[in-house]
Write a structure and sequence with these properties.
Length: 198
């Protein structure tokens, strides 16, 4: 039996066994934990949806048909029409109920491209039946900030206009008369919504 333990085959077997055990110990000593995982995450995108006079302006930005001018008339001017010295108003209601970010709102008023009544002026505006605020210039701009925390999400702007007739008017009486025959009195309302990031 001693001869067997001293034989070359036994020594080779013992060397292989030792090598195998050594490799197993080295592998477990230097092993690294390796694992992997994957997942899909869905994020909810903030709503950005505005209604102007009940019209979705993201799908149809021309809300011309929703503006209804009101000219109450006087003792000498029929209601519903405009002529020199008449005053009236129109409303623009902006509904931001479905907007989920803070934003700035810019409303710019100007005379329409085909307007021929150059004495048409923007006098003032009121917000939600508040105190009228004077306007100046041919194309006034109203800028309002709406924070996400605001509870008032539907705002109505009332814009007051006048066919000015006075000392520094642009049109003389002949031009006023011509405008009454085949003139056009119209205004343009531009609205921009800009997300606030700070």
């Amino acid at each position: 039996m001693i001869k067997f333990f001293r034989s070359r085959k036994f020594r080779l077997f013992l060397a292989c066994l030792s090598l195998f055990m050594l490799l197993d110990m080295v592998q477990s000593t230097y092993a690294k934990y390796v694992s992997s995982a994957s997942a899909n995450g869905n994020f909810t995108i903030a709503n950005w949806a505005f209604l102007v006079n009940n019209q979705d302006v993201l799908s149809n930005s021309d809300f011309s048909n929703t503006i209804t001018p009101v000219f109450p008339g006087t003792t000498h001017i029929k209601s519903g029409v405009i002529s020199p010295t008449s005053s009236g108003y129109f409303d623009v209601t902006i509904d931001s109920t479905n907007v989920e970010v803070s934003f700035d709102e810019e409303i710019t008023l100007s005379l329409g491209d085909d307007n021929t009544v150059t004495d048409l002026t923007f006098d003032s505006y009121s917000l939600n039946n508040g105190t009228p605020v004077s306007l100046s210039g041919a194309s006034p701009t109203i800028t309002t900030t709406h924070l996400l925390s605001d509870t008032q999400r539907v705002n109505t702007y009332r814009f007051y206009v006048t066919w000015y007739d006075g000392q520094d008017e642009n049109m003389n009486n002949v031009e006023d008369t011509e405008a009454a025959i085949d003139g056009t009195a119209n205004v343009e309302v531009g609205i921009r919504f800009i997300q606030r990031v700070n």
